[in-house]
């Protein structure tokens, strides 16, 4: 894409381009998308974030309906077949994730901004159906830091970590497809930059 904006989360106040009321956040695995979203939920409760459905099991501390909707393969099949998902994808070759369509459309119909925190495949699907959305790429400060964050989580097996790192290399190469890049040096700063993008959307 052209006319991209890069936002360093350590340098607030960077101007943002014109945008629609739908903001899509994506980035490589382990970059901290979920953590940024969790900080926004905690510090900015007025910001609405879509809750994705997934077929994977909950990680420690995750709550159904808050972090994800945890559904069976059969229920996910039904949701996809009946058009209830705005986008969905198989992530890391294993589990499926998708965005329930109705809550997003209801939010946008009210003229209020909505934030989707999804993977790269899902972001591409949303671009096909909602090209006027603002697409934000969350980027790690370096490859070494991304590896450190992934291995430091301790929630995946060695095989799973290697699979995620291979996926991350591909995902990092997609940065140019996005309208804005936020560098995730520090999670609260990155969250504030993203909230600024959402709130600027309310201005004329």
């Amino acid at each position: 894409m052209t006319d991209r904006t890069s936002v360093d989360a350590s340098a607030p106040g960077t101007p943002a381009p014109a945008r629609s009321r739908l903001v899509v956040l994506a980035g490589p695995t382990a970059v901290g998308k979920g953590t940024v979203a969790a900080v926004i939920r905690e510090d900015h409760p007025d910001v609405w974030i879509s809750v994705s459905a997934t077929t994977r099991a909950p990680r420690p501390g995750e709550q159904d309906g808050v972090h994800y909707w945890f559904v069976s393969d059969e229920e996910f099949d039904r949701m996809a077949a009946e058009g209830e998902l705005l986008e969905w994808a198989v992530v890391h070759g294993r589990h499926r994730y998708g965005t329930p369509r109705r809550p997003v459309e209801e939010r946008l119909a009210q003229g209020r901004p909505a934030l989707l925190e999804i993977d790269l495949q899902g972001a591409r699907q949303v671009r096909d159906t909602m090209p006027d959305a603002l697409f934000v790429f969350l980027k790690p400060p370096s490859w070494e830091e991304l590896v450190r964050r992934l291995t430091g989580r301790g929630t995946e097996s060695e095989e799973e970590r290697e699979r995620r790192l291979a996926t991350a290399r591909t995902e990092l190469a997609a940065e140019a497809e996005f309208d804005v890049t936020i560098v995730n040096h520090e999670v609260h700063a990155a969250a504030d930059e993203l909230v600024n993008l959402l709130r600027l959307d309310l201005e004329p």
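Residues 5-200 form a domain with the Rossmann fold fold (CATH 3.40.50.300). The chain has seven helices and nine strands.
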